Amino acid sequence: MPSVSNSTYLSVVEARNKVLSDYIIKCLNSYGLCVFDNFLGESKGTDILNEVQKLYNTGKLTSGQLVNTLSSKDEVRGDVITWVDGSEKGCSNIHSLISSIDAILLNCQNCLGHYKIKGRSKAMVAVYPANSTGFLRHVDNPSGDGRCVTCIYYLNKNWNSKTDGGLLRIFPEGNSRVANVEPKFDRILFFWSDRRNPHEVLPSFRERYAVTVWYFDSEERKRAVKRFKSSKSRDPKSEMVPLTMPMQ
Ligand SMILES: O=C(O)CCC(=O)Nc1cc2ccccc2cn1
Ligand SMILES: [Mn+2]
Q1: Which ligand is located closest to the Cα atom of residue 147?
Q2: In angstroms, what is the span from residue 118 Cα to ligand 2's centroid?
Q3: Could you tell me if 222 and 73 are in contact, meaning their C-beta atoms sit under 8 angstroms apart?
Q4: ipTM over 0.90
């Protein structure tokens, strides 16, 4: 196998990011959602899966239901989650995932709707335990909190929703068709975070792993910060961190 120089490797990565960014721009602007398979490849995807499973198996994830502090006794969501920025011990591959997605979104600058994307949330690592209840139909950002694009990276090898459940169902506004997204290994999904994309997760019968990042529109974010200035809530999903440059 001829060795590839570092500069050649980088230009291949940049060309690939450009192709992927063009695809995301076209899909999101046309349909409001975009699915891309084989995002990082078997090896990198497995490295990320191993880190997520380690976080889960060492008890680092807490019930998402509690995070929502819902008074209702009905379980709205059955996931367990933790928030990472990738600098944590044992999260270097999750950091690499976040940087890869940031690089793609930086390439999409100013071409996604009217949005100016300059920041994102931390990454939310989520596991739906086997026989969990999924996530009831909801909108990620119903109230203009600044989040404009939801990005979910799935880590579930040989997933078959007929037997394993766990389908993500998106109900694009004004469209009678439903998008059924299998949470397949090394699949990345982007969709508008606002009321255009109500969605739900069907009950899973097998452990279901995903990493989610939300990207912020700078103008909507500025307006939201002004509106929520008084609120003391330090909800991690609405904390914004700047995009990181891709790790070389
Ligand atoms: O795993 C999937 O396919 C999507 C699951 C999903 O919608 N997760 C989710 C998780 C959330 C956590 C905090 C606040 C809002 C949230 C909205 N959505
Ligand atoms: Mn959601």
Answers
A1: 1
A2: 21
A3: no
A4: yes
